[in-house]
Amino acid sequence: MIRRRSRAVVAALAAAVATLFSPSSAQAYTASQHMVISGHGWGHGHGMSQYGARGAAIKGLDYKQILGFYYPHTTWSTKTGLVRVLLAGITTNKVVARPRSSLTASWRGHTSVWNLGKVQPTADQWQIVPASGGRSVLMYHVAAGWKTYTAVVGELDFYALGNPISIGVPGGWRSYRGTVGAVLPSPSAATRWIVNTLQLDQYILGVIPSEMPSSWQPEALKAQAVAARTYAAFEMATPASPEYDLFDDTRSQVYGGFTAEQASTNTAASATTGQILMYGGKPAFTEFSSSNGGYELAASTNPQPYLPSQPDPYEQYSGNPYATWSASISVTTLLNECPSAGSSITSVTAEHYPPSNNPWLSRVIVKGPSGSCTFYGYQFRVMNGLRSANMGFHIS
Prior knowledge:
By secondary structure, this protein is of the alpha+beta class. Helices cover 22% and strands 31% of the residues.
């Protein structure tokens, strides 16, 4: 199960501040004491809870009912088209592919195409390597080593007439549908971005099992399919870069390519082909997280009617290992995190997001005789390795 950052909480993390506080005569906590935490959920809590979707499916809700609960006020539509995914884990600045039938290299923006199996049938690997002046070098590997086949000014792509391509990644190989190319960040750049371009519904096949266990209930998998497709459609409309739409990791949503695909999640994608959620005539920003602990949290920046704060009746069941958890933070750790407090901690208090019954912490305030520190809830969670900011605490 993936724990991701949302756009809202990343902004909140950057905005944390420390403020001065007048010396206090309150009794200081001792170094042997701890902030004892009772928490719920895992993740940022915005949008659909994945464990909640599973709980709703167990109770008999279908995927449209599940999505209607987590994203109210949205409407249904369809979306197709090409999505461009940055394969961020490939940091070698080149693309290495294994040979296969119909493996082809093409010069982007030109008509030049090379059927690699025909031009060099003894090659056991092919690669696209960047060179100076915005050039790309196509090379092949044989028993004698790497040899240059051709070089062009611009970008090259591998594809295999609709068949998956096996691409070198750290620690091994991973297969991808569509094309995989070495993209220039700028015309004269020496570096490359490795980008997988494929149809939106093909992309979803590699997302669903990377984000939700493929053994879960079919209606939960369908809900994940639509949420993930909508998320991608939103990013296609507001791309992360001129050269790619989204990342293949938790900066967007996790994508494992053809290698990650499973029969059950492919069935869920097929059953929801093209379906997305809309709001205001645009794809909705369908955030999701592992578990909200029983309360969905509205976005703190750019709030939307389809991302409400509301109790979640589908979270609390025996199959959710994150429904309730506990942790503790030593007073010494709090002092290290808030040096402006001085030599001791005199109080730790919290503020919550509205409405009044919302259990999510918006701020944690640590005070000492010399000053205080105010941490946003998400920041405090990340600093201390906590599963979520849906929590209560006391000093003991």
